[in-house]
Amino acid sequence: MRQKLGNKLLIIAGLVLLILVPIMMIKGLIMERSERHQEVQQEIARSSSGEQGIIGPFLYLEYMEPKHNEQGQSYTVLHKRLLLPSELKWQAQLSTYEKFRGIYKANLYRSQNDISATFNTRKLKDYEDKDITKLNLVMVVQDIRGIGVGSMAQMAGEQLAFLPGSQIKQLADGVHAPLDLQTLLTQEKVSVQINLNLQGMKRFAIAPVGEETHVTMTADWPHPSFVGDYLPTSSSIDSEQFTAKWQTNFFATNMQELFGNCVRSKGDCSNLRERSLGVNLVDGVDHYLKSHRATNYALLVLVLVFSSFFLLEILRKDAIHPVQYGFVGLAIAVFYLMLVSLSEHFGFNLAYLVSALASSLLLSIYVAGMLHSSRQGGVFLGAIALLYGVLFSLLAAEDYALLMGATLVFAVLSLIMMLTRKFNWYGNNED
Length: 431
What we know:
Layout: H1 2-47, E1 52-68, E2 74-83, E3 87-101, E4 104-120, E5 131-141, E6 152-155, E7 158-160, E8 163-164, E9 174-178, H2 181-185, E10 189-201, E11 203-206, E12 212-219, E13 224-228, E14 234-237, E15 242-249, H3 250-253, H4 255-264, H5 270-274, E16 277-281, H6 287-295, H7 298-316, H8 322-346, H9 348-371, H10 374-396, H11 401-419
Helix pairs in contact: 1-6, 1-7, 1-8, 6-8, 7-8, 8-9, 9-10, 10-11
């Protein structure tokens, strides 16, 4: 008896390892489909517009200064200066939409941005007698293809004409509007209002260039992931939309020095581009990720199902052939294949429901025939359906998945130990 049980356990362990081979192949298929999905998203981004990061508005000034060397020869030196707004108020309204390519889709957004910036023009008086070659209002945009029709700016009641390019070598992508210094100097403070229509994908970030920056962002998206160096001071998220507010000052941002390193001295703009606040519109129903997470529990499902069969063998003294174990294992593996294929067309939740029902019915009918008992088949149907329900709960409860999984394993192990605590593993059952 002991030798038979030992051999059966070894056979079952070998079958579990054997069934894991097609499950690993299915997991590889999920990764392949997920990578293809990401490639399609990148293709859509290349044909429309990608992630957006905005730096501005700010004033950019260049002037030439004559110099003489020791030999008395004259030459000119190009100087670059920046003026950041003393106050920046930004209101962004994002509306999302989808683009499809085959069965794959990408989530894009259109943002309507109302921007108000106030500049202290007293700092420009030092350049009144300089040979100014450029004086522009600049907006740096990460992907300029996303700039929509209707974007405009106004200063002192007059409309400014945006032109392509920022005219800054280190921050080339964007728009600029030429300004007149004498017009700016007529007021100590000048306000600029900008309406910027922008299209992008996933990420939307704003550089807090003001000495004081206030940003309010709303979107019809229930799964925001706030990104950048600053978290919102307040946020509200529900099942349909979110609203977030940020507030920063120049003590916390150090934008002036970062601009200087980028434009004037070192030419390193990486820190400037990273100094931002914003949101990443995360896809909360990534069925490939959920399907991949489901396959991580395949070993647990196999062990639980095979353990229940082995328990039936030793309690009922009904022999179950290894081939029957193998068919049951293959049915469990096919569940994951059905899950990923159906989720591409109907979404994860419906795909899981259909796959779980099909797998549960198939296994229960097979078990009923295998044990020659419709009652045992019905009991198994309830048990496997409960197992698939618990697995779905594990996938949904991201924060408590480990705790729930550990509790499930402990409960099942406890049940098996209680049922077999009086079993004589060397011979027959004893009272």
